[in-house]
Amino acid sequence: MMNREQATALDQADPLTPFRAEFALPEGIIYLNGNSLGPLPARAAARVAEVAAKEWGEGLIRSWNSAGWYSAPRRLGDKLAGLLGAESGEMVVTDATGLNLFKAVAAALDLRPDRKVIVMEGSNFPTNNYIVQGLARFLDRGHEIRFVEKDEILQAIGPDVAVVALTHAHYKTAHLLDMAGITAAAHAAGALTVWDLCHSAGAVPVDLNGAGADFAVGCSYKYLNGGPGSPAFLFAARRHHASMRQPLSGWWSHATPFAFDRDFQPAEGIARMLTGTQPILSLAGAEAGIDLACRANAAQARAKSSALGDLFIELLESRVTGHGFNLESPRLAAERGGHVALSHPQGYPIMKALIEAGVIGDFRAPDTLRFGFSPLYLRYVDVWDAVAVLAEIMESGRWQEARFQQVEAVT
Ligand SMILES: Cc1ncc(COP(=O)(O)O)c(C=O)c1O
Fold this sequence. Notes:
Bound molecules: pyridoxal-5'-phosphate
Strand order of the largest sheet: 2-8-7-6-5-3-4
Oligomer: single chain
Number of helices: 13
Strand content: 5-15%
Shape: globular
């Protein structure tokens, strides 16, 4: 078992160590929840203040042109494209993940009008199910969602399938799906794919065009450290640009928005997946986070995130034994995204006790504790210390104190 000095030595040899200084991390906190909300990049705080004071305060409406506000969804999309294996002009940063999923699945269904089945993983993050259920209900054309679990996906893809809409790294267990293999199977059956990369972008290397993906969506507030509620991204492969249509056609998706025509004419290219006026302050924060992720070496980031997760599992299994935890994530790092999930029947009070002790992870009902291993700011020694805190909480039984039983609105 690794000791604390060995963990510190790993930090000294870590090529990503300089990135930690780019984040404004609070003292005394070990932040293992970057899989839910990434911490604040120092540059994001400075940029949001500057955009508010200078670009908004002084530039006023002129900043739509002079400060690059209008082009921000495309500019940020082009940056992310480089990270996620897309080309310039195939991605925009805009709206929420759920809204982008709605637009992408609608566009994909529209490209397969004679087919009625959408394949999804039933245990996926619920908003994805709700959004596609809502879309199918409003289309009212007899679409069926075929809910399956990971080992049933390939058998579920047949000639009746229009769209396979899956999440690359599972929000609870972090299991990874084979993006290239499933996309190839979908294409062989004549179907299209929509990938949710919320838990992949910034944690796991992604090659959208290498995998042949048709559409993809994902958020920027987790491993991309874009800020609370920062805008999401949407990818559409260039081969679909001329024929794709989406239902939330607004003036930002129009070919000539400032002609103020009565009738809709779609813009050329990815711009037709936009809808309306963008949250510029949030985009400024997101751009700082995205810039950091783009500066880091993706292979080094993945290797470190995997190693931190492996270390956590190894320490847990040697130091926190006999307390009823089960590993819910794949043990093999190659099959896992950026976090490690444990189950425990008393997961909620245990997580609250951990948070009070300065180790922040999160809880997903009914019994999952998640620990995110974001590579740019976490140290090996943080993992070592976090497991020591967990061991102490379990051995002392402190988690059983009444205040940890009180359920809060956001877990
Ligand atoms: C896989 C996945 N999709 C979507 C979302 C959320 O989407 P939205 O940003 O629309 O709330 C999450 C949130 O954690 C998620 O984990």
